[in-house]
Amino acid sequence: MQRHTPEPEVDTADAGTLSPGRLPLGTVVTSTFEELAPALPNEVADLRRKLIRWLSELPLDPESTHDITLATYEALANVAAHAYPDGRGWARLQATRVGDAVMVTVTDTGCGIPATRPRSAAVRTSGGRGLLLIDKVTDQSEIDTGEQGTRIRMTWRPAALRDAGAA
């Protein structure tokens, strides 16, 4: 499933700290992207390529595009590697531009992230650095996880979008 809806430039004031699915009534979204794919390495790599194409339509600087792509791919790779121990499941990628913010949400219905999973770079594990990287390259990130799955919401406020609204 894919939904991609570009719309004319509209300033939505300070809606940049909100996440997809929780926007206030009357908020105008300037562009959205949504895709659902099997949680397999090749499939999530394809989602990354589609996100890059969507991002190329926005007036973003290369550094912001890189950060958004990198963090999103880390979240998608986590779904493929950890969410479904039996190897069967889905990853949902949603991206939205509202005002001067880009918000990306990666969702799965897998087993969730264990509460005991380390989130410290000093702790040696066979991975575990993806969530730390996401924290570093986003302006804001939020993780909701449990037995029903995981949702990672990431927000960026690239300067190029703030400047584009002023022109």
List the main descriptive attributes of the protein structure presented here:
alpha+beta, 167 residues, 4 helices, single chain, 6-stranded antiparallel sheet, 32% helix
Shape: globular
Overall average pLDDT: 80
Our count of helices gives 4
The major sheet is characterized as: 6 strands, antiparallel
| Rg from alpha-carbon coordinates | 16 Å
Order of helices and strands: EEHHEEHEEH
Instruction: State the total count of DSSP E strands.
Output: 6
Short description:
The chain has 167 residues and is of the alpha+beta class.
Chain-wise SSE layout:
Elements (H helix, E strand, L loop, with lengths): L1 E3 L26 E8 L2 H15 L6 H22 L6 E9 L2 E8 L21 H8 L2 E7 L2 E8 L2 H8 L1
Antiparallel strand pairs: 1-2, 2-3, 3-4, 4-6, 5-6
Helix pairs in contact: 1-2, 2-3
